[in-house]
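Field guide to reading this record: the first block holds the primary sequence, the second block holds the structure written as discrete tokens, and the final block holds curator observations. Each block starts with its own label. This record concerns Metalloendopeptidase, catalogued under organism Scomber scombrus.

BLOCK 1 — SEQUENCE
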Amino acid sequence: MNPSVSLLLLLLLGLSQADPIQEEISGEGLLQEEDIEDEVNDDTVDIGTRILISNNATNEILLEGDLLPPNTRNAIRCRSQSCLWRKASNGQVVVPFTISGQFANWERQKIERAMSGFHRSTCIRFVRRSNQRDFLSIESRGGCFSALGRSGGRQVLSINKQGCLYHGIIQHEINHALGFQHEQTRSDRDGYVRINWQNMDRAMAYNFHKQNTNNLNTPYDYSSIMHYGRTAFSINGRETITPFPNPRAQIGQRRGMSGWDVKRINLLYRC
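BLOCK 2 — STRUCTURE
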């Protein structure tokens, strides 16, 4: 056999036996097209709508549709170092995690692929938990939801097997866990979107209250993975969120983090 062919066969054998996930998730070689396959197949439903549909039957008390109420803070706010994940001496922000045995292997791989997107473009590193006190416990509960920022101890991030296993939804909930709120509740949102209060149940209006957000000197982003779609919490099918001043601007997407989503992670965590 040609020596170069033999060398190639040995190399391929070694790659086939390599563990794709060791101390931390690797994923730089994964194709983005694989990550978003299911969103492309259904091109009509944005991330926010999917989340709200999935959370309709949950027994959890949720704020803004998918945020667990804080246990240690008196407002939906993550602006201080206390709710950020800690940076290691090597400059990487380590987020320990566990994934429930509720998930099949392909479901775990889908969650891990969504995590690997953060590795490609930020200093966030998701690592399997050993004995760390603070960690994400990824489970299939009654919907898609997370706490805002690092809340301490075992922190549930729910990705329901029946309605939340989409690349964009997983990254949306992870962004909440990193400390990011919804784009449409930004403190400066009134210059970019109009909230149509008449098209929602008054009892749901609190979901659209502006928050005292840290906008990191970045522009309002209609394409953010954290932006809900036009009919979020609508009671009549009409728009609750209308872009302003251009009412035809596209809001609410399906695929994954926008460029500004990535930039904000790097700014917040000083990557």
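BLOCK 3 — OBSERVATIONS
Helices lie at 3-17, 32-35, 37-41, 47-54, 105-121, 167-178, 259-268.
The longest strand covers residues 93-99.
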